Request: fold
Amino acid sequence: MSSISIPKKSGFLTNLQRSMGGVLRRSLTIFLSVFLAIIVGSIIMLLYGQNPIMIYKLLIMGAFGSQVGFFVTIQRATPIIFTAVASALAFRTGVFNVGVEGQFFIGAIAGTYVGYAFKMPTIIHLPLSLLAGFAGGALWAFFPTLMRQKLGVSEIITTIMTNYLATYLISWLTTYPLAASAVTSETPFVQPTAVLPQFQEFTPFGKGTQASVGIFIALGVAFVMWYIFKRTKLGYEWRMVGLSSLFSEFGGINLNKTFIGGMLVSGGIAGLGGAVEILGVWRKYKNLFAVGFGFKGNLAALLGGQNIIGSTVAASLYGAMESGALGLEWNAGVPRQLIDIVVGLIIFFMAAEGMWDFLRKIKIARGEPARRTTENLEV
Amino acid sequence: MLPSYILHAQEINYMALAVEMIGIRKEFPGVVANDNVNLSVEQGEIHALVGENGAGKTTLMNILYGLYRAEAGTIKIRGKEVHIHRNSDAITLGIGMVHQSFKLVPSFTVAENITLGAEPRKFIFTDRNAVRKNVQEISERFGLQVDPDTRIRDLPVGVQQRVEILKALYRNADILILDEPTAVLTPQETRDLFGVVRSLVAKGKTVIFITHKFREVMEISNRVTVMRDGKVVATKETRDTNPAELARMMVGREVLLRVDKEKARPQEAVLQIQNLKVLDNRNLQAVRDVSLEVHKGEILGIAGVEGNGQRELVEAIVGLRPAIKGAIQVKGKEITGLSVRDRRETGISCVPEDRYVRGVALGASIEDNLIVGNYFKEPMSKGQVLNLSKIADFARDMVKKFDVRTPGTTIPAFTLSGGNLQKVVLAREISAEPELLIVAQPTRGLDVGSIEFVHRRIVEARDKGAAVLLVSAELEEVMSLSDRISVIYEGRIVGTIDADLATEEGLGLWMAGVTDHHKPDEIPAAGDQLDIDQKEANLV
Ligand SMILES: Nc1ncnc2c1ncn2[C@@H]1O[C@H](COP(=O)(O)OP(=O)(O)O)[C@@H](O)[C@H]1O
Ligand SMILES: [Mg+2]
Reply:
């Protein structure tokens, strides 16, 4: 039927360039943000009387340059991979799940409880404890989801609230009903049958670190989620609803089911991460052991462009920076808060890109020249 | 030796050119958007600039308005050569432009938007009273009614456009560029706009009017310049040309302005609606009492001014909006309780009126947009797993069959032009081989070639045995495509008539809610009042 359409030469190349532009611009943004953050970080270090080049070198050496550093990187990255994948999943389905933090806590305490309170063979006990973590996280995500779907309350508000709720609930649990003794705020140790082995326990590697086989679970979960997004009907629904719920509804996708499903799995993955952290590293729940894992995951997911692979990579880098910072503190006496500042700066500069966009819109509104106008969106 | 008064007259003639653009060239990576373009616009005229999407009209005007810099060429304003380096130069020269997509701040009031960036001041503060007074004064002077204190986001599109025009006038624009101003307007709003444009010209302004609707060119312009592929094809006195010639120049070949279709052979009823009531977003009754039938093999057109319940009617049929009363049956099966998916599975397809919101997910790939109706079925998926190669094949096939111009099927939908996006929607909805095909405002904002294509596909679907429900605010479209026409007014069907018997006047009365004087059989037959040329003009 091409005879009745009109030849138009102009489209092809420009269209391609425009779509390429999206990816390029995104990469450029990340690169520039990291670059600017390093520069500004350097200035701060100089002000602090430190040699930035040496610090960055030590940072990288600390994370990857030694066996210990490498295994600490693994240990640090593991929980963040879980929370980053959980965040990315939620973001992609169009839910701003800031509750990953609380879901991680609840998953951890649920995993701990099943881990210490029952006696079973490993083959049942370990999977069951992990499952408890997943279920705990999912449950904690369920309330905000329900409130959003039934009452229309923004999930940002409710998930922040459930985060607080989680902290208080766990303080109480670890101090009273689940406390190992009357004088501590921690649970008993989990049974040996519920423990995830650390590398130092069964290989000659990773001496002095607590990196566990949990990393394989983390990477496995990331892979499975990537596969689900790319290759399954469920993943298609998640992606579409995240991109446009109005289109998805029109196309016949069940919005409620998709939202709730996405949120539950997101919470579940965060909770599983909590359980893995306990069973692999700590083996008992100490009150407030894990503040910030959820937020780090949120940030890593944003840095990673909200896609599963990007978020996993960003989470690993985050872990590496933490490990490097730890080494710095040990070897050079540089406080690790400096690293937190650099990470904060990266986020800040990425957010600044959004600001530029905003400023440009204002300029256009004022009728000032814009480099590119909106004519491309032909009405 | 010529008498001096003739020389004088020539000079006046020369001075009478408001805008002269000579040999303008502008390139974008991979495209020459303007190639040696000449344009001259006389003082006080309405000059239509027409051409398909991508012809380079907006680019040319952006150069005149100082948003882009031309690589070559000269510009003269009122006979004097000028150098427009930036937007403020153009504004100083008295040039104003209303863009295709408005550039207003939704949360600001009308007055704030009009004066934005040029606010009257008291010391360093904005003088709010003066702002309101200035705006009121200018709106009275040009007869453009607006309430200075309403926020932009609460205004209909037509009024927003008026605000944009006022904004330009506030900056003392003498030469006003309107970039496809009617693309987003209803017929009524268009009529209002034409009134505004005429009164501006009567007050001595010059207007450059971009459009790709011939009817509008014929109705409003004094002269018309046609562009194609970055070049000017011709400039003509409007009265010396006609829609067919304009279409030919625009597209570069003969275009069928009339829809070519055979007589319908309607069979059994596919869609039956009885006493349907539907609420709108404000919980008011939008569909008050609609009963209608659409038969296999026919196109039933719903004509009506927009906002008379069409949107809610369509949404109720496809399942996006509950019916508070009444019955909707497809092939005898009641569907009011079914989900969107289940309704689609009973054989309903729909090309929605808001292409960019419901019709596609702009951020998703063309593939993903094409499979939303069948991804969950074999062969697109098996069990839970998608069959990516089958999906790619399907998408390639659709893109080819529906002539979607795109370098690939995995690039995001937002890279496509409006016409190509609509082809994607059509491909998805028609390839499902529906029993009932609903098409709402199917050609809004499209260029001539795409309109022709879309119309053909709709007729083709009918001939293959679909029952087609067409909803359109373009009366010409309804009249040329439909086999039967119903008119909706304030949520009720006020009349139904055979398309062969319908006239624009008769339908127009119905659309205005006048039913007493005209029974369908009293309405004069087509052709009695319109000559052929006029009819052609009305089709696009
Ligand atoms: N800012 C831009 N960057 C790149 N290409 C552009 C830009 N603006 C327009 N173009 C291209 O220039 C050509 C002419 O576009 P435009 O002037 O918008 O056409 P029209 O207004 O006639 O539809 C098109 O091929 C379009 O893709
Ligand atoms: Mg344009």
Remarks:
- Chain B touches chain A through 86 residues (CB under 8 Å).
- The pocket of adenosine-5'-diphosphate (ligand 1) is lined by residues A 10, 14, 372, 375; B 28, 31, 33, 51, 53-59 (CB under 6 Å).
- Confidence is low (pLDDT under 50) at residues 1-14, 517-540 of chain B.
- The longest strand of chain B covers residues 17-28.
